[in-house]
Amino acid sequence: MTTTGPRTGDFRDQLVQPVLVLGVTAVGAVQWSAGQTVFPAVALSLFVLAALAGISTLFPWTGLGPRTQIAVISAYMGFGALLLPLAHETQAAGIFPFIAASAAGVKLASRKAAVGIAVGGALLATGASWAVGALVPSAPQWPWWAPLTVALPVYMGISFRDRQDVLLSARRAAEAAERAAESEAREAALLERARIGREVHDVLGHSLSGIALQLDLADALRDSGRDEESVAAVRRARALAVDSIGETRRAVQALREDTLPLPDLLRRLAERNAVDFTIAGEPASPGAEATHAVFRVAQEALTNAAKHAPGATRAMSLSGTADRIILTVHNGPAGDARHGGTAATPGVGLVGMRERAAQLDATLHAGLAPDGGWTVELSLPRHSV
């Protein structure tokens, strides 16, 4: 996950104020001895105070309250505005009030306070320039309009602060979206694991139950002296064990194929099992969960038919009506009654199929067909699609 941190642009933006304050302070100190000032003692005091106030604005203000911040910026602006007409020939020192106006826009959360301090500084600089001109007519002075421009940088500071706020909000929103995406991905992974666990549980439960039944049958046949049939039952148990491995693999594969439409999934299933498959009407493809559940019902019904009616013909169809999607799996009578049960034997997977149907708000009918075979019909309402 991306963490909040300074960017290249942020460093560049944050360097503007320090470079200005420290640069003006250094250049002003160098020029001070060479330049001429009006009322030198007062001018030097104002220069030192303005420099200290400017340097104080370079530190984080998280521990200062709004009133303290306003007081510091006001002092910064006041010292700079009064210094403007006194240090005309030092040039650099006269930049302090402009930097103070910009700092007011950047540092103060209240735009009203920032603009008020900037305008007040401009008026103070104008008044100070008029007073110095009256007291010392021979002293060089700025043009009459120059002190009024002291307030203008406040809008640059406000714009800079707004830009920083927008960037910070966008960054936080992006990080929140990334965290939400990661949370959704984790939830999806957990759901996927739960689904795979349920499928493997169903497949293994069905297969192990069949194996246990065949082994019990083999034991009973051996006790009655029917050794040949007992060996056949053991072989069927082994075949069930082998089938269970394949069933487990197919269950996991089916989970990975959920993105395919239901008709395509059933067509593939029919091809793998060499079963006739027909489509009637226009059965809409349901959502991923419903698609997977219908697929598993079809898979379970075909598996039951193969185990309980070996050699019987099998067929599968999918049809759509105005309000329902219907899956039908039919097998004829068992072709070899000596291997497995009869077509009417309801298989241990029937309970699992009924549970899936209940989850879909669907109905499942399983029972004897008129031809002596077995039919499983799942009827899914379209409102649950």
From TrEMBL:
Pfam families: HisKA_3. Gene3D superfamilies: 1.20.5.1930, Histidine kinase-like ATPase, C-terminal domain (3.30.565.10). The keyword ATP-binding applies. Keywords: ATP-binding, Coiled coil, Kinase, Membrane, Nucleotide-binding, Phosphoprotein, Transferase, Transmembrane, Transmembrane helix, Two-component regulatory system. GO terms for molecular function: ATP binding; phosphorelay sensor kinase activity; protein dimerization activity. InterPro entries: HATPase_C_sf (IPR036890), Sensor_HK_TwoCompSys (IPR050482), Sig_transdc_His_kin_sub3_dim/P (IPR011712). The chain crosses the membrane at residues 15-32, 38-58, 117-136, 142-160. The keyword Isomerase does not apply. GO terms for cellular component: membrane. Residues 167-194 form a coiled coil. It catalyses: ATP + protein L-histidine = ADP + protein N-phospho-L-histidine. Its EC number is 2.7.13.3. Residues 192-260 form the Signal transduction histidine kinase subgroup 3 dimerisation and phosphoacceptor domain. CDD domains: HATPase_UhpB-NarQ-NarX-like (cd16917). It comes from the Bacteria. This is histidine kinase. It comes from Amycolatopsis saalfeldensis.
